[in-house]
């Protein structure tokens, strides 16, 4: 019986009824254009303005193909999201979809993993925003004291390094960090160092999200217009500086160089699922959410591919390992005015990405609270502003405090682990929906291609190719023994899941596209580093403690059954 309680499911009718009880209190104001704008705001954020440089440096011009591949991979997931969004048009995103398909325990795990996708990635985005903002102010001749612009760990590391190797041997970030250490005010000889801009922008964006979806929509639409305009200007302006010889060699570090950018490139695309968290604020969610997701992916894929080709055509790929590649390439070709415009726009672009993620997290907590898995306070809707007020404030605190004080480098990959996990659940959920006959409720359906024989045949072909060519697309031989073992065990899990899906597809005539979505996300997941997996597992264990301490007893399904 205990097992059944862990996997108790909510019916679609029940979820829709719960969201309408007494009116959800959220204002339905978003049309397709607003949803596409929110999606583009989330996708075209820190990714195109920062991580694209490092990815191009590792993969060369061929990184444009990786953007195509990742967009293609996301389409399978987006179709699955779209089917769920049209069948279950409520604000919980992948959390709600898992509740319908796999039951309460999995729903909780996904909800907990989504905190990594939204709240933790927002810490990374806030810190990235701070770097751009400080360099933009420097461009205008305004100098912010260094001790107000970074995490304390940088300064302490630089001081320790200086004692070890001497000040003359410090360079780049270490010199700036040492300056912060030496000029910072002190309490009991302890330097006071924190990243003030990262904290302030989080407070500002939280306030905007708190006062209403209409205000957030207006701000988002404006910022998206500005950044799309500048990206088009970069593409069309940069075309005149392209030298085709920069495109050879096309893939200087081979397939491995291209694939090493998977986490960074994928991080650039994760925003499309944030659209599904605004379902209860959409005018016609069943029609508009599926359209918005597909439009977003198409628009962003085209923009990303064009911009990588222009960047790698303007300067040699080997010069692109910089934090602000778009501004850098125009400085490089002597077009400084454009470089200045790009650095101002990147601040606007990253602000809009912050806004969308800061909008998404409270709505997931609100839905979990409505189901009884989190404290009731999280479901409070502000009587005047019609937003989940308490959940929004908590999200602001959860993002702002770490952004002020912590180094967040390793969180990019960690965010991707949580996201891949959610994506796999959503694709798997569509297979369950089809199998359980729940698809009839959806106005949009993933196009059906029978995978009965195809999944198994491709599995055999894949095994034959591995046997002939060795482990494909895998960097395992570069890893230390422990990491290599974990990397290989993750690949073993990938092959075992493919085998299981082959058998189930033969038995149940599974739809091919969600199966491809599961396999692509699982493969990309296996390519992420071992340390991310370990932290992710610890994060999930903490989540399970919270669930069994509170959610299991207080779940609406539990209290209704007892009643």
Automatic annotation (TrEMBL):
It comes from the Bacteria. The lineage of its organism: Bacteria, Pseudomonadati, Bacteroidota, Sphingobacteriia, Sphingobacteriales. It is a multi-pass membrane protein. GO terms for molecular function: amino acid transmembrane transporter activity. Keywords: Membrane, Transmembrane, Transmembrane helix, Transport. One of its GO terms (cellular component) is membrane. PANTHER family: CATIONIC AMINO ACID TRANSPORTER 4, INNER MEMBRANE TRANSPORTER YGJI-RELATED. The chain crosses the membrane at residues 35-57, 63-82, 94-115, 192-210, 222-242, 254-272, 292-317, 337-360, 390-408, 414-433, 453-472, 484-503, 510-526, 532-552. It is found in: Membrane. Residues 512-555 form the Cationic amino acid transporter C-terminal domain. Its main location: membrane. This is Amino acid transporter.
